Automatic annotation (TrEMBL):
Name of the protein in question: MOSC domain-containing protein
Organism of this sequence: Hoyosella subflava (strain DSM 45089 / JCM 17490 / NBRC 109087 / DQS3-9A1) (Amycolicicoccus subflavus)
Signal peptide span: none
Top-level taxonomic group: Bacteria
PROSITE patterns reported for this sequence: MOSC (PS51340)
UniProt domain MOSC: residue ranges: 8-151
Amino acid sequence: MLGDFGRERVLSAIAKHEVRGTHITLQPTNLDGDRQADLDNHGGIDKAIYLYPAEHYSAWNTSQYALAAGAFGENVSVRGALEPDVRVGDVWQWGDALIQVSQPRQPCYKLGMHVGNKAIIADMVRSGRCGWYARVLQAGDVPVRGAMVLQDRDSDSPTVAEAFALIFESPRRA
């Protein structure tokens, strides 16, 4: 349970923990040991895993926020790939698995509850530092630390930054 929102108890699986070991199995709808508490809005085939650029944490860690890796509920922290660089539909090889970028993450009130500051929702929208969801095209064992390699890209597909901006109807920068 995440806490109370008004008179309702809020269930969430946003709190993630670092995986020990060298490999983990990526299933069609999540990583082994992961779960989603709100299947109407999280998880499922198109939101099997949530990836978030580790580079964004330096921008978030200001006087207003002090966030550690995993604060956004991401399953995977990535380096070297930002929202303007990643396209919806990109296919990446990750160990034995293949994943496909499906959509940008849209912040919800549970993120604000989790970090203890509801302003983070508007700040994520304003900054465009959203991360993205991926679907699993091929399940398999994946390294806990290691490269994801771009296998296929449609250069006509929108970037994650462009898709996020379309959702919120204004230009963003990541």
